[in-house]
Amino acid sequence: MINKRGTSPDKIDQLEPKKRQGLIVVITGNGKGKTTSALGMALRACGHGMKVCIIQFMKGDIYAGEWDGVKQMNCDIELVATGKGFCGIQGNPYPWTEHRANAQDAIDLAREKITTRSCDLLILDEINNALKLKLVDLEQLLGLLQNKPPMLHLILTGRDAHPQVVELADTVSEVHEIKHAYRQEIDPQPGIDY
Amino acid sequence: MINKRGTSPDKIDQLEPKKRQGLIVVITGNGKGKTTSALGMALRACGHGMKVCIIQFMKGDIYAGEWDGVKQMNCDIELVATGKGFCGIQGNPYPWTEHRANAQDAIDLAREKITTRSCDLLILDEINNALKLKLVDLEQLLGLLQNKPPMLHLILTGRDAHPQVVELADTVSEVHEIKHAYRQEIDPQPGIDY
Fold this sequence. Notes:
2 copies of one chain form a homodimer.
Chain A: E1 24-28, H1 35-47, E2 52-56, H2 65-71, E3 77-81, H3 96-115, E4 121-125, H4 127-132, H5 138-146, E5 153-157, H6 163-168, E6 171-179
């Protein structure tokens, strides 16, 4: 932390909530910035010495920078990409049943992380999409939310968050696309889009 | 990367854009997930071996987890918190002139990072707010955007992005608050909110 003219504040406050509690945070919508927001919370949590686990649904077929990004972090962070890409989109060769099997593995893993209380922050990346595509069942996701240990933070990302999930969440953001580079035929760029 | 039943995809594709180019990305709106999205892109870019610089406007008076988070990353990443907190909000003791002086330092630093081409991804966190509060001038920010080297990715966060900034950007997301924990009188929680 530097400040060029030595005009730093007189003191740096350390916030401490009156009550610490684990939150359910949902980041949904059609714009860019859902997975990246979850990854940013992971980085922030690492700074606080928290244990982080990221489970990516439907991702695993296309390399993403965060896979190596988390390896470069000297903190207790784990990322598991469990999927075979976005089910049903053009070019994805896997049948729904295979996507479903992978997503069911991911749900099992999430349940295990929750019941063993093995992390402070658990990110279920793209789970909203996985639910929409019936790769996981609403009852499965609601079961995870209802059994969340009080101190665990749970972050759910992906488009089309289910209303009952929104209802149970503490903080919900909807990311709207105002513009996206791909509409100007700019290819996905490393570091930004993947 | 693990996959419990060995149902990994047959192969992992490595995307490579037909043309690599630096993007201007704006993350604005009133919801949670703007700074964290920028931090997530930083983590992602680190995974790609890119050099990252984060300049935080108006932040520096309250400890944030990302300050230590970036220190734990084994990559070329720098974070500079240049401010004295949110200008004008209740409890902030510093006059506008001091906030302005700090933001002007931050703009000088951003200009230096851009002209010396010393990073691949430059995040100007809360600069939209700083502009709205006249801590920086529109001409200053437009000058940075217009002089951006073609390969540099520039990420601008904060509420109330200026229309001329949106116009120049490639990708713009607006994060809407659907719910926020603080409205239920839940204090900001470490790892999530700071």
